[in-house]
Amino acid sequence: MASDGSPVRDAEEKQKKKKKAERSGTDRADVEETDAQLEIQRLTAAGHAALQSGHNNTALQSFRSALKAASKLREKSLQRRCAFNLGAAYVEAGEPQKGLDVLSRSQPGERGERIADLQFNLATAHEALGDRTQAARHYLQAAQLYRSQGDAGAEGHTCVRLAHCHLLREEWDEAVASFQRAAESYKLAGNTSAAALALKDAGKHMLQSGRSSGDDIISVLTDSLEMSVNISDQQTLGKLLSDVALSFSQMRLFSEASECFEQALPLVSSKPHRLAVVLQNLGAVYNSLGQYEQSLRFHREAAALHGSLGSRGAQGRCFSNLGFALMELGELEEAWESYLHAQQAFRDTDDPSGQWQACEGLGGIKLQMKDPDKAVMYYKDALRLLCKCQDVSASVQERLVSELSEALQQKLRIQQRGPHHDRRQPW
After folding, report:
1. 3-state DSSP call for residue 331?
2. In which element (H, E) is residue 110 found?
3. DSSP labels for 413-427?
4. How far is Cα of residue 95 from the mean position of the Cα atoms in its chain?
5. Among 20, 206, 376, 406, which is 20 to 30 Å from 188 by CA?
6. DSSP characters for 263-314?
């Protein structure tokens, strides 16, 4: 029988000790890797929490530490996730170039691993750097990936961002298509409020592009209004109604526009600037409808509110609209005062476009008052100021020339009748 100290026994004991030591080393490595992964999870959670609370520098520090820890481990997918988090945080913190550099490290090695969030953040970084072509490409990829994942809400949000890229590139048709796709995605996600906003923007830019039929635009805007009933935030709803009303106004659908502006009015009452604009637009719409008595209140309230807010140019436009309405109602003295207020406001803001319109109004009043000398003076001033304006329709100049000619003819007729005929007291 072999003794305990035999060579065979000694060899077996050494082999056992060796295997035990190897197992022990492996166990320690596993424990260390598990500890590292837990620390990475903690750092990642801290980074996300810091981002949500607006502490960007703290978030970046946490994500940098997580990536540093992950780079010491064997798991490549974990390294990519950490790089993604850090890159996204750089973009969020307003450092898009750093974000882009780090995000490139999170590009997956296998196609199946590519994630929509990565494409979205790459797009955001490119957009912040002004490369809208690359941004649009990545947003489109992100939208397609979100759709394949069944995440309709994220697809809708991405399509809105894609639309804005197209707008900045003046690609109107592509922008409209992206807004409409966003609306479809939001509807699928059950977010009809966001769908209403997307359709409102689609209709606005359909009108801007000039390539859509009136019926198509009206259909889109009507759908937006129908879905807007689910918008609970008053300010958001008020802005949507105002924007849709403005689109209707540009289409000369003034009855529909007035209805939307009236609905928006109480919703924007707590926002003085927005309230002033809605009041101003309501007055202008009622002028266009020929409902001058109804327009007066809105012109006056808008002028007063713009004045209190220091919006001198906008106040001038309200006075000009008020002057027009009063002149149509035969209230020439009040109209004259309103146009004078408008003229001064446009002078204060160095607005030749507003000035020539005020001068035209003043000339029209003097023409009605049988004071052709003053009328001629104002029409000539209007034509002089018109020359300082760009993109003015030739028909405007033709109209002013015609009005000037009428004033000159009136002057000639009065001279032929004699100095005492039809004399009026000047004011």
Report:
1. coil
2. none
3. HHHHH-TTTT-----
4. 23
5. 206
6. HHGGGGTT-HHHHHHHHHHHHHHHHHTT-HHHHHHHHHHHHHHHHHHT-HHH
- The residue type of 202 is A
* Number of Cβ atoms within 10 Å of the Cβ of 179: 29
The Cα–Cα gap between 46 and 40 comes to 10
Separation between Cα atoms, residue 408 and residue 367, nearest integer Å = 10
For residue 367, which amino acid is it? L
Tell me the pLDDT of the chain (427 aa) as tens digits: 333 444 434 445 545 554 554 444 455 655 667 777 888 888 889 988 988 888 888 989 988 898 888 888 878 778 888 888 898 899 889 899 998 888 887 776 544 445 899 999 999 999 999 999 999 999 999 999 999 999 999 999 999 999 999 999 999 999 999 999 999 999 999 999 999 999 999 999 999 999 999 999 999 999 999 999 999 999 999 999 999 999 999 999 999 999 999 999 999 999 999 999 999 999 999 999 999 999 999 999 999 999 999 999 999 999 999 999 999 999 999 999 999 999 999 999 999 999 999 999 999 999 999 999 999 999 999 999 999 998 888 999 999 999 999 999 999 998 888 655 554 444 5
DSSP, collapsed to helix, strand or coil, labels residue 186 as helix
Write the CA distances from 316 to 123, 162, 215, 303, 352, integer angstroms. Answer: 43, 38, 35, 8, 12
Contact 205, 176 (CB under 8 A): yes
Whether this model's pTM surpasses 0.90: no
Q: Which of 141, 109, 111 is nearest to 124 (CA)?
A: 141
**Alpha-carbon span 126 to 169, nearest angstrom:** 14
Q: How far apart are CA 67 and CA 79, in angstroms?
A: 6
Q: Is 3 left (phi over 0), alpha (psi -120 to 50) or beta?
A: beta
Residues in the chain: 427
Residue 393, both tokens = 């329709």
Three-state DSSP string of 162-179: HHHHHHHCCCHHHHHHHH
Query: 150: burial class by Cβ within 10 Å (0-12, 13-18, 19+)?
Result: exposed
d(CA 303, CA 320): 10
- Gyration radius (Cα) of the chain, Å: 35
Quickly list H helices, 106-213: 116-128, 132-149, 152-168, 172-188, 192-209
Torsions phi, psi for 377 (to 5 deg): -60, -45
